[in-house]
Amino acid sequence: MARINVLADDVTLDEPMMVEGLPGVGLVGKIVADHLVDRFEMTHYANVHCDGIPRVAVYTESDTELRTPVRLYADEERDLLVLQSDVPIHPKAAGEFAGCIRSWFEEDGVVPIFLSGIGTDKGDSVPTLYGVATGEGRVLLDEADIGHPSEMGLVTGPTGALMNYVLEHGLTSVGLVVESDPQFPDPEAARVVIKKGIEPLADVEVPVDTLVEDAEEIRRAKEQFAKRMQDADDESTQAQPLRMYQ
């Protein structure tokens, strides 16, 4: 049965922002989500049980406890949630996944911050970040001084399905799109998302020194995950210029 199984009933949140960290181009969302959970030592708030999620169990180094592959973490002090996923969501299951958690957005007044990489050969230049929004999210973008898109585009995969739902139902959300490596994990793109996007939107300060110092180690650690996504021929979450379809 599709459901959000809350584990930490003692955590109180007031219309929190939720950083969505589903795997996609450059693994930007995955890297950002993992970093926030680790640096803020966030509480394992809930397990996500959806038909679109692969039926697997996850374990970590030096810990015997099994976990569901998609989880929610909470930081009560910062009024912040993170959706963390250890598995890719196949595009054919994107609609099911979005339908599983959509009512939770509304019931708990969650404001999602969706993340997507747009594959670009950016060389050594700093990745460009821009924002899109639904509902009152446009006000949030302006207050955070986040730029607008420079061209038409679309977002695919499970993140695109979630965006489609909030758009259809007039809910408030923000989407952050960043230039990222189209083939390999991109810690630099994740750093830009955190400093130029999440910090001003959620009014938090996130140390990113380890993202910079350990970029190569992070890239190697995530490459196996990225290869699994490619081997599965998975049209994962990504932003694409709309001219590709014209």
From TrEMBL:
InterPro entries: Proteasome_assmbl_chaperone_2, PSMG2_sf. Pfam families: PAC2 (PF09754). Residues 224-246 are annotated as: Disordered. This is Proteasome assembly chaperone family protein.
